[in-house]
Specification:
Elements: E1 2-9, E2 12-20, H1 21-26, E3 30-33, E4 44-46, E5 49-51, H2 57-74, H3 87-99
Antiparallel strand pairs: 1-2, 1-3, 4-5
Length: 117
Amino acid sequence: MENLIAIIKEGKVHNIMVASDEYAASLSEQTVNVTGQEVGIGFTYSNGTFTPSVKSQEELEAEGRSWRDSELKRTDFIVPLTDFPNHAAWITYRQTLRDWTATEDFPNTKPTAPAEL
């Protein structure tokens, strides 16, 4: 029977996979059957209990900057394409991304893209 298995490393959920109990038991890492539980990667595991991890402000800001950088890279191709649909809105969005880290919204409220690519 296939179950949802959490792999625990250094007291945190390192990975989650679908596997049989037999396969999980064959692994060298600590594993816990989490079928039916709400558990995510990064959760702390102690004494049979999973706890969501609490991120520091520095971690949240680093994640925000990483997301912003990936959004800028994802939309780089639009800049020279002046006939791209909503070109001006995309250029404004990119400027908003660059300015976002200096706003009160950072890192909690991400800028919204004008449309799906």
